[in-house]
Amino acid sequence: MASEDVLAALGVEGASAAAHALSLPAEAYGNDPRLEAMWAMKAYNHAEVYFNLISSVEPSFLRLTKMDDHIYSSFREMFSELDVKLLKEEDLKSEPAKERWRPFCEQFQGLVEDFNFGTLLRLNAEKDYSEENSIFATRVQFFAVEIARNREGHNNAVFTSKRTKS
C-alpha cells in the first residue's frame, strides 16, 4: 500500500495522531506494531525523497545538513577505511561496529536533529533502495555515509544513470 493510501485511510484525525505519536520519545512506547509501521513508512518516505534528490541533482553539490563538513571530517577520522561505495551489514550491525559507531553518533546528539531516528541506508551506492540493498541505520549514520558518498563521487552513478534515461 502506498504511503498516500495509508495516510488517506487514517483520515485527518488519525494522521494528526500519528504525527504526534512519531514526535514522542521512543521510551514512551513498547513494541507497538502500528507505531513500527508508521516509523517504517516515515523511513521509506525519507529514502524515496533522498533517492529522487540524488537522481535529479549532481550529488557533489548537495548539502544534507548545516554540519556536513563536521560530520564528514569526524566520520573519515573515525572510519577512514570504511568502503562507503559498498557497505556490508556487519559494517554497521556487528558488535565491534556498534562499539565504534556509538561514540561517533553520540557526539551529534543535540546538534543534528533526530540524530538517532531510524533511517534506510543503501548498501550499494550505485543501486536504488530495495529489500536486498537497504539496511536500517541511525539518521547520523545515514548522513555520514551519504555525505561521504556525495563528496567522494560514489552517488554519481545514480545521477548519471537517471540523466541518461531521461
TrEMBL record:
Cellular component, GO, one term: cytoplasm
Pfam families: PBDC1 (PF04669)
Native source species: Gouania willdenowi
Protein known as: Polysaccharide biosynthesis domain-containing protein
Top-level taxon of the source organism: Eukaryota
Xref: InterPro entries: PBDC1-like_dom_sf, PBDC1_metazoa/fungi, Polysacc_synth_dom
Domain Polysaccharide biosynthesis: 35-158
